[in-house]
Each structure stands twice: as structure tokens, then as C-alpha cells.
Specification:
- This protein starts with a strand and ends in a 9-residue tail after the last strand.
- It has about 240 residues and is of the alpha/beta class.
- The chain has helices at about 40-50, 80-85, 125-140, 205-210, 215-230, and strands at about 1-5, 30-35, 60-65, 65-70, 90-95, 100-105, 110-115, 145, 155, 160-170, 175-180, 200, 235.
- The strands form two sheets. Strands 1, 2, 3, 7, 8, 9, 10, 11, 12 and 13 form a ten-stranded mixed sheet that branches. A three-stranded mixed sheet has the order 5-4-6, with helices on one face.
- A hairpin with a 2-residue loop joins strand 10 (about 160-170) and strand 11 (about 175-180).
- The chain has five helices and 13 strands.
């Protein structure tokens, strides 16, 4: 079975769980990719991990080179628009994740969980809710009060998006995930209408705390939040042990 989708609108009535309920105690592995990773390379890695689903569950943490991505709801952008974005020094990709157009780049922490939602007794909507709650918990560790709205993602003051979400499922195994703004140059977002919401703006951990908080600073806090919400320990995994070929 193939479940392509997700979620650009909120579904308040379908997820009452405050935490996941894993059916086994096997830890979640996490992989921190060094440097800046081109979006195409991250897609290849996710495809490999989804097809192998080995280790059983894994989360990839990384930063992308400057990239604009369009989700399933806003594909087939005009050649002129694609060329305009590329002239800014960014790549452009149309993807299978949910959502509309957004930016990924240096200073933004990406988390791509590869896991089987059945192992956590989650449906798709509750999985997205768990990702949102994970980001909210991470923000709270920095004293930032974040939350959700009728629009997908995590927001500060209801109008400033601090994290974008967009996921894809294949045979219940997840890919894509979340993008948390740490110390990313927010000027990149001025070139688009982020997630198709013209009346909203974006923010970051650094902007909200008036300090420099990098993705590498944030990974330990986000790991703790994943452990809290998904009710499993996270253990580091080395890239070479994945036997990519």
C-alpha cells in the first residue's frame, strides 16, 4: 500500500494521544550528517533507508545547501519562477512531501525520521501531531512558547513560523519530516510565500532568544524531545555502518 500525502490543513479531532505508544523497546538510531548536504543527496539517502528500513528506525539530522522545495500542492512552477530562484544561488526541487513551497538551507536543522508508524500505534495525522509536539517541546527548552494553529507547522505568537513540516509515507514508513529554523538567514524566505501563507512571517530560535543558536547546538535538545514524545531512547549511528551501496 502506498500513502503519498500530507497535510496542509489541521485535523484537531483525530489525534487525542499526547505521546506515541511504541510496541517494542528497540531504540531509534540517529545520524548526524556533516557539512551541508545537497537536497538530492538527502533524497537518495532517504530512499535507501525507506527501502531497507534498516536500522529499524532512524532519524537523519542535517543542514541543506540553499534549496527551495515545492510540495505536492504547488508543483509545476513556471520555468521563469524556477530560474529566478536559482539565480539567487539556491537549488529548486519538486518533491513528494505534503505542503507548498519553502526554503531549506544553512542554519536550519532538518530532521528526517524513517520509521514505521504502526510500531508507535499512530495514524498519519497523529504522527504529524507528534512531530509538531516534538518541536514545541524543543522550543520550550529555550524558553520559547510555541504552538500549532489551523495551518501545519509550529508557530510563535500564532503568526511567525519557526518550523515547517511535510512528510511522505510509503507502506507506513515515513520520510521527509521537519525543518526547524535555528540561525538561518530569514531573508531567503522573503523571496517566496512560505507554505503559501502570504499573511504570515517566519522566525527562528536565534531571533526569539536574541542569541546565536546553531543546528549543532540544537540537536541534543531535539533528540531529548524526540525521546520524550516518541517514548524511546535515541542512539547515535555512524554513516559507514549503514553500508550504503
Amino acid at each position: 500500500m502506498r500513502l503519498p500525502l500530507i497535510l496542509q490543513q489541521r485535523f484537531y479531532s483525530t489525534c487525542q494521544s499526547s505521546i506515541a505508544k511504541p510496541i517494542n523497546k528497540q531504540p531509534i538510531g540517529y545520524l548526524v550528517l556533516p557539512g551541508l548536504v545537497r537536497y538530492e543527496e538527502a533524497l537518495k539517502l532517504q530512499t535507501y533507508l525507506v527501502s531497507r528500513h534498516e536500522p529499524a528506525d532512524i532519524i537523519c539530522f542535517l543542514e541543506h545547501t540553499p534549496t527551495y522545495t515545492a510540495g505536492r500542492r504547488i508543483r509545476d512552477s513556471s520555468p521563469e519562477e524556477v530560474e529566478r530562484l536559482r539565480r539567487l544561488g539556491a537549488d529548486y526541487y519538486e518533491t513528494m512531501r505534503g505542503g507548498q513551497i519553502t526554503f531549506h538551507g544553512p542554519g536550519q536543522l532538518i530532521a528526517y525520521p524513517i520509521l514505521d508508524i504502526r510500531d508507535y500505534e499512530l495514524n498519519v495525522r497523529c504522527y504529524v501531531s507528534m512531530l509538531e509536539k516534538t518541536v514545541i517541546d524543543c522550543c520550550a527548552q529555550y524558553g520559547i512558547k510555541a504552538g500549532t494553529t489551523e495551518n501545519t507547522g509550529v508557530w510563535v505568537r500564532g503568526n511567525d513560523k519557526i518550523a515547517a513540516l511535510g512528510v511522505h509515507l510509503q507502506r507506513y514508513v515515513t520520510s521527509h519530516g521537519l525543518a526547524l529554523n535555528c540561525n538561518v538567514d530569514l531573508g531567503w524566505f522573503d523571496q517566496i510565500v512560505p507554505c503559501g501563507l502570504a499573511d504570515k512571517s517566519v522566525t527562528s530560535l536565534s531571533k526569539e532568544t536574541n542569541s546565536i543558536i546553531s543546528p549543532s547546538d540544537t540537536i541534543p535538545q531535539l533528540v531529548k524531545s524526540f525521546e520524550s514524545l516518541f517514548c524511546k531512547p535515541l542512539v547515535p549511528v555512524q554513516l559507514e555502518k549503514l553500508q550504503l551501496n
